[in-house]
Amino acid sequence: ASEQQLLAANQQLQASNRQIQENERKLIEAQRMAHLGYWFWDVKTGDVEWSDEVYKIFNLDPEEFKPQIDSILALSARWPEDSQRDRELIQRAIETHEIGSYEQKFLRPDGSIGYYESTFQGMYDDENELIAIKGTVLDATRQKKAEEALRDSERRLLLATSSAGVGIWDYNTLTNEMMWDERIFQMYGITDIPEVISLEFWQNCLHPDD
Question: Can you give the pLDDT at residue 20?
């Protein structure tokens, strides 16, 4: 090959490398913004690889924490029933070769509780033997905390309305459907609850003078 051809090939190789680096940068940035990490477990050697975002999700220092199966499981040791469920889900996904997923609580170094969602898939050799498992970790802490706060708010509201003997209703003016809580039915003495509560149904429960 001529010197000009070699130069052109070298320039093309450099351009390809720059494109690869740019794609990797964009992928890392997207994972950071989405709080999404990547993990890889070599089941033959036991080695576990975490992306930087996984360390951030768990609030762990990559210089101090070495991701191994035992050390990872220790993060959720406070909830053995959840860990057992997760192991069963992973085993089921491995046996069926399907993509699996699970949710798990974990303990942060500062003692606070975090939540993550993991999606994973097995990798197999030519003899169909499992050689590795790869997956993702999504930080679900903020979402789970919001769900818990909503449930707590609903419980407090239910306690307050029950204690005060107050019923709650909602009316959709577009569909002419009403939503009643249990207390409303008790107040009107209705035991046979209809599938749809319309404005007319409610009006028929009122005294004619009203």
Answer: 63
